[in-house]
């Protein structure tokens, strides 16, 4: 309403009309961005999935156990093998989502625990990978490994942790 | 200033080199795929496997800038800018067997007059870790060598800028006795117990402290001219901590019994017969929410000093230190911190009147306490790089270094600290 009123008042003013057009155009662009980001978000809404390597399928299943693995309190699989943990960088959107959804934590809490172990020599932090592709590759080709990806993909070579 | 620029440049170059070497390590597996000869590939895979699985390298670096009014902090910061605060650490850990591992960390540190311009290199920790029992519910083990002391929330990693919220640690982590609390040479028994109600960790360190430090000595006797040094007697530091929801709530109780004796250089040394025994506990509580965080720690320290001639009014005193701190994350990587901090050297002489009278005015009363109001902003640019800035309004001077402030008569009661820090970790 405000804009319409102003348009009437300044109808004769070309300069203002030019600015108004710019404003509308810019807003159109903004709404376009909004649409795109909504679409992207819709994609991001898919739940992250925890994956494990073939050697440890079905060894652990619980939510509490999952948190113990990523906070490095559980270091070994029930078969006695050392757990190899892979993670994405702290500021990665998939990492943030995974930590919230699957561990019920925030990335800065995990980092606090990892830092304390790393810089007192009392534990080795998870190995950081740069992309989901690298994560898939590492978990599939490392024995006793665990990691996560952004969504469930039906593929025989990918094994899920099933923490539900 | 020139010296500062050279130092900063050196630090940044080193940090970049380190980050490149990390990148190189990350990238090399992919480039290995391009190697046509399969055998070479296999060899590399084997090398990579041992490398990646068993051995890890990590490090950190920080450079601080301090500008103060009234008193010096880490070098000549008073009405000037001091860059005499640098910390650099590199560690390697090796998981030799499923229950046997080794870890060692070297530390380079410059911290004002205490370390001098050249700084000093120390073995920060170096130990062998033997895991005796390992179950889903927890583990028990022992460590032998030089081990960090579990004291409060931050002592174990007090030199790693990333692990604590402000540039200057709370007063409870008394900077002047840093060396004493840092680590001990001996053994540690550790036990973890994980339950659905939360996780318990217990650590018990027993051994010999590093008591041979000029700052520790002057903190006790307020006399920078003493020529001898302290030597540690068997001491212990222990901590029980309880974490709920993966560290959303953390509670810890730490207790330390520190003993040492003075080693005189000459027979006419007035402190020749001096011994010191500190018993101290600290209670810590922390809440780490998504946006909001809250921390508080409270500590009492019983100081027993035997046969001392000058400077300290009582052979026995109780020190009290506590703080409350609130933090807010505006963004995942931008955090503001507000803290009120208090340190009292002797609860029976809260305002230092006694120590001033007994020393004939030599030791100013405000050397006996410190209250500090802190506001800080921290920006984690990437997971590896961080910058932060903070302002302190300080009332009292109990925590300042006498090596950086040798003239007791010039020590100011009310003063300010402005600080800036850049830090890197990998």
Account of the protein in words:
Chain A has helices at 2-9, 14-44, 63-70, 93-103, 107-118, 132-141, and strands spanning 49-52, 84-87, 127-128, 145-149, 159-160. By secondary structure, chain A is α/β, with parallel strands linked by helices. Chain A has two domains: 2-44; 49-160, 3-Layer(aba) Sandwich (D-Maltodextrin-Binding Protein, domain 2), CATH 3.40.190. Chain A has a five-stranded mixed β-sheet, sandwiched between helices. The longest helix of chain A is centred in the N-terminal third of the chain and has 31 residues, at 14-44. The radius of gyration of chain A is 24 Å and the shape is globular. By secondary structure, chain B is α+β, with helices and mostly antiparallel strands. Chain B has one domain (2-54, 122-425): Porin, CATH 2.40.160. Chain B is 16% helix and 51% strand. Chain B has helices spanning 2-33, 38-54, 178-182, 214-221, 353-358; strands at 55-68, 82-97, 100-111, 120-135, 138-148, 183-195, 198-209, 229-244, 249-263, 275-288, 292-306, 316-331, 334-344, 369-380, 385-396, 414-425. In chain B, strands 1-2-3-4-5-6-7-8-9-10-11-12-13-14-15-16 form a 16-stranded antiparallel barrel. In chain B, β10 (275-288) and β11 form a beta hairpin. The longest helix of chain B has 32 residues, at 2-33. Chain B is globular. Chain B starts with a helix and ends with a strand. The chains are: A alpha/beta (164), B alpha+beta (426). The A-B interface holds A 64-65, 67-68, 71, 73-76, 78, 80, 82, 84, 89-91, 96, 103-113, 115-116, 118-122, 124-125, 127, 130 and B 26, 52-53, 56, 58, 60, 89, 91, 93, 95, 98, 103-105, 125, 127, 129, 134, 136, 138-139, 143, 148, 156-157, 160, 162-163, 190, 192, 194, 196, 199, 245-248, 288-290, 329, 332-333, 380, 382-383, 425.
């Amino acid at each position: 309403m405000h804009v319409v009123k102003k348009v009437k008042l300044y109808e004769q003013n070309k300069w203002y009309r030019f600015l108004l057009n710019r404003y509308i155009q810019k807003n159109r662009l903004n709404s376009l961005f909004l649409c795109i980001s909504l679409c992207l978000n819709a994609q991001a809404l898919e739940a992250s999935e925890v994956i494990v390597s073939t050697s440890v399928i079905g060894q652990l299943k619980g939510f509490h156990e999952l948190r113990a693995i990523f906070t490095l309190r559980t270091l070994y699989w029930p078969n006695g093998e050392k757990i190899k943990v892979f993670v994405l960088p702290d500021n990665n959107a998939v990492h943030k989502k995974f930590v919230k959804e699957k561990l019920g934590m925030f990335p800065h809490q995990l980092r606090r625990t990892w830092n304390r172990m790393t810089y007192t020599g009392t534990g080795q932090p998870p190995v950081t990978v740069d992309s989901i592709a690298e994560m898939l590759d590492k978990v599939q080709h490392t024995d006793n490994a665990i990691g996560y990806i952004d969504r469930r993909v039906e593929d025989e070579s990918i094994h899920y942790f099933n923490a539900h | 200033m020139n010296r500062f620029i050279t130092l900063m440049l050196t630090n940044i170059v080193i940090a970049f080199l380190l980050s490149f070497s990390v990148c190189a390590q990350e990238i090399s597996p992919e480039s290995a795929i391009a190697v046509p000869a399969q055998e070479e590939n296999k060899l590399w895979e084997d090398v990579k496997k041992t490398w990646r699985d068993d051995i890890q390298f990590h490090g950190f670096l920080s450079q601080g800038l301090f500008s103060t009014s009234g008193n010096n902090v880490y070098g000549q910061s008073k009405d000037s800018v001091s860059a005499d605060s640098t910390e650099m650490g590199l560690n390697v850990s090796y998981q030799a067997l499923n229950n046997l591992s080794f870890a060692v960390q070297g530390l380079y540190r410059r911290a004002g007059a205490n370390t001098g311009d050249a700084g000093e290199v120390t073995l920060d920790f170096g130990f062998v870790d033997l895991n005796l029992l390992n179950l889903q519910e927890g583990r028990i083990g022992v460590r032998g060598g030089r081990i960090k002391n579990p004291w409060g929330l931050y002592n174990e990693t007090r030199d790693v800028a990333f692990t604590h919220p402000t540039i200057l640690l709370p007063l409870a982590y008394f900077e002047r006795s840093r060396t004493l609390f840092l680590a001990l040479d001996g053994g540690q028994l550790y036990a973890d117990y994980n339950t659905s109600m939360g996780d318990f960790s217990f650590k018990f360190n027993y051994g010999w402290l590093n008591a041979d430090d000029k700052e520790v000595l002057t903190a006790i006797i307020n006399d920078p001219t003493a020529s001898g040094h302290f030597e540690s007697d068997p001491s212990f530091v222990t901590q029980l901590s309880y974490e709920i929801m993966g560290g959303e709530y953390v509670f810890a109780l730490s207790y330390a019994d520190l003993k040492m004796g003075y080693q005189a250089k000459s027979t006419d040394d007035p402190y020749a017969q001096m011994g010191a025994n500190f018993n101290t506990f600290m209670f810590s509580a922390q809440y780490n929410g998504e946006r909001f965080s809250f921390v508080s720690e409270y500590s009492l320290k019983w100081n027993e000093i035997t046969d001392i001639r000058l400077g300290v009014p009582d052979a026995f005193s109780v020190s009290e230190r506590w703080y409350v701190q609130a933090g807010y994350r505006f963004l995942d990587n931008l955090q503001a911190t507000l803290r009120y901090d208090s340190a009292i050297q002797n609860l029976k002489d809260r305002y230092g009147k006694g120590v001033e009278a007994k020393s004939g005015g030599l030791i100013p009363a405000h050397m006996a306490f410190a209250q500090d109001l802190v506001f800080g902003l921290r920006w984690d640019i990437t997971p590896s790089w961080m910058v932060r800035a903070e302002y302190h309004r300080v009332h009292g001077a109990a925590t300042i270094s006498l090596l950086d402030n040798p003239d007791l008569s010039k020590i100011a009661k009310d003063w300010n600290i402005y600080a800036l820090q850049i830090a890197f970790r990998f």
